[in-house]
Structures are given as structure tokens and as C-alpha cells.
Design a protein that fits this description.
- The chain is 35% helix and 14% strand.
- The chain has helices spanning 9-16, 49-59, 115-130, 134-149, 203-210, 218-221, 225-244, 258-271, 276-287, and strands at residues 22-23, 27-31, 38-43, 62-63, 76-82, 90-96, 101-102, 152-153, 168-171, 176-179, 183-184.
- It has a six-stranded antiparallel β-sheet with strand order 1-2-3-6-5-4. It has a three-stranded antiparallel β-sheet with strand order 7-9-10. A two-stranded antiparallel ribbon has the order 8-11.
């Protein structure tokens, strides 16, 4: 295993005593400003940072193998404090830093914006995403294929059916999307077939991550004409990329029933008021894609230790 030049203990302690870069239901994330390629993820179960500092000095971090072959999914590269009952969970990890920002409108730990402010932000972000080049959507599909080959998946949080808005980042500088906070394939979650091949790595689940405000302020904003047009453009770009990259929805956690998947697509598109003629076009095209993953399936590799909630895989 190639050893990384990780941040020093002093650099890590400096980082975790600053304001967090972001926070979610499971952890707070701190940017290591003196090592801009890294960040530190601390479990929300950790509340005594003075005691944590002493542990970091005493125990240090254990490095992990790079199972993603140089790709950046903001994955953990080192950890501290394995969970007693789940050896894939840790109290603290050092993670790669992925450029960009999440497209959530209502973010944990921040004041909830008014409907008017949220609409303004939703339109601005939707314009940016709609104007992303085709290459950004192609890279997103390619990353989804790659993750499936490693039996890792987009993280939807709490076993939900759509990717967490915070787990696909938008970078206007790099003109790309970055998937972050990936998880091993779920194997023990109720209702999920153990023999699925794609997890959440399919077009259906990606939409919430790139269609800003799709489930936030949905009722207030879904009938706004400009937003409908922008969202239609975004979905068209995603479907076109799925066609170019041979990525379809069969084989994910919903199983292999294309009729069921087509129905869910129609429900989803109706919720954001995509015109019926476009709905039919999108669903027909998605159902016509023959899935071809260019990456061989690799089932035997080390499981990454992460700061996470309960495991649903085996």
C-alpha cells in the first residue's frame, strides 16, 4: 500500500478547532486549510474535543488502501477509533477534499430561507447546472459505473430512495459534478434484493442530487415556468448522458422491473411539472438503454472504514 503524506497532528487539531466546513446527521466536516487536499470528518457522537485531541496524540491515524484507483469521492483515507460492534465505522476519519459545493437550499445548521429567497437560489443553481457541459454529465455517469464495479454506491441517507442533495457537489471552476460520501452496497436493508448490481448508481436516483429544490419547497416552486424549463433541460442532459454511457435503471435497488421503474420516473417528473410530451420521451429513452459497464466487477477488496450510521450491508 502506498503511504500518503497526510496532515500532521497539529494541522488536524487546528482544523477541528475551527468552524466546520459543513455538517450532517452523522458528522461534522472540517477543512484542513494547511493541506487543502484533505478534510477531517468527526462523528456527531463526539462532543468532547479536548478529550478527542488527547486521543489523536495518543493513538494516531491508521491509513487505508486506495480502492478507488486515484478517483476522488471524498472518501476516507485514514481513521481513528474503530467502533466496537462495527469494524467499518470510526469516530474520526481523514478524507480527500472534493471541490465544489452542495446544491441544497435548506442546509442543516443554517437558518431556513424564506420561500422567495429559496426560489431565487433554486433558479440560480438550476441555471448553472443546466449550463454544465455534456462532459460533466458524462463524467457523472462514468463515475456511477466505476462505483458499481467496486460495489460502492451513492449515499441516500436513512435508506431513502433518492440521493442526498448534499452528496453531489457542483463545481463551476472545474465544470464537473463530484460524488461524495459513498457507501458500500446495501445488502440487509428491508425490501432490497441482495443480488442487485448497481445500488443507487442509476439515473433515477441521481435526479434529486442535480435537480435543485426538487424535494425542498416542492409545492411552492414546482409550477414556476422558468424553473420547469430549466429542470426539463437538466433531465434531458442526464438522460442523454445515460444514453451515451449505456447506463440504465435496471439492476439497482428497485430491481429489474422496468415497468415499475418507468412508473416511478413518471411520478417523479410529474412532481416537478415536466410537460407530458417530454415525460413520455424521457421514459421511452431511458427504458431503451442497454446497460454496459465498461469496468469489470471487483468484489474482493478492503472495506473502507468510515464515519457513518448503522450498516446495512454484509
Amino acid at each position: 500500500m502506498t503511504k500518503r503524506q497526510l496532515p500532521t497532528i497539529d494541522e488536524i487539531l487546528f482544523a477541528i478547532n475551527e468552524d466546520p466546513l459543513g455538517e450532517g446527521k452523522e458528522a461534522r466536516v472540517f477543512k484542513v486549510h494547511m493541506r487543502p487536499k484533505y478534510m477531517v470528518r468527526v462523528s456527531n457522537e463526539i462532543t468532547d474535543y479536548e478529550a478527542l485531541s488527547k486521543r489523536i496524540f495518543k493513538e494516531g491515524f491508521i491509513q487505508q488502501e486506495d480502492i478507488f484507483e486515484g478517483r476522488n469521492f471524498a472518501q476516507s483515507v485514514a481513521y481513528l477509533g474503530l467502533n466496537e460492534y462495527d469494524r467499518t465505522r470510526a469516530d474520526v476519519t481523514i478524507n480527500l477534499y472534493a471541490p465544489g459545493f452542495s446544491m441544497e437550499i435548506d442546509k442543516i445548521g443554517r437558518e431556513i430561507p424564506s420561500s422567495e429567497e429559496a426560489l431565487m437560489k433554486t433558479i440560480a443553481l438550476s441555471k448553472a447546472v443546466a449550463n454544465m457541459p455534456d462532459s460533466a454529465y458524462d463524467k457523472l455517469c462514468d463515475d456511477l459505473h466505476f462505483l458499481s464495479s467496486k460495489e460502492y454506491s451513492l449515499d441516500v441517507g436513512n435508506g431513502g430512495w433518492f440521493v442526498n442533495m448534499g452528496n453531489i457537489l457542483y463545481s463551476g471552476v472545474d465544470k464537473k459534478f463530484s460524488i461524495i460520501d459513498v457507501q458500500p452496497f446495501l445488502r440487509e436493508h428491508p425490501g432490497i434484493n441482495r443480488h442487485h448490481t448497481k445500488g443507487f448508481n442509476v439515473p433515477l436516483y441521481v435526479t434529486r442530487g442535480i435537480v435543485t429544490g426538487m424535494h425542498q419547497y416542492a409545492e411552492e416552486h414546482s409550477k414556476y415556468p422558468l424553473l420547469i424549463d430549466l429542470r426539463t433541460d437538466i433531465i434531458n442532459k442526464l438522460v442523454s448522458a445515460a444514453e451515451r454511457n449505456n447506463l440504465n435503471d435496471v439492476g439497482g435497488y428497485l430491481g429489474g422491473d422496468m415497468d415499475k421503474i418507468a412508473h416511478i420516473w413518471k411520478v417523479q417528473l410529474s412532481r416537478i411539472n415536466v410537460d407530458e410530451k417530454y415525460q413520455e420521451n424521457f421514459v421511452k429513452r431511458l427504458c431503451s438503454i442497454e446497460n454496459k459497464n465498461p469496468y469489470p466487477l471487483i468484489q474482493k477488496h478492503p472495506m473502507l472504514v468510515r464515519v457513518s450510521g448503522r450498516s446495512y450491508y454484509s
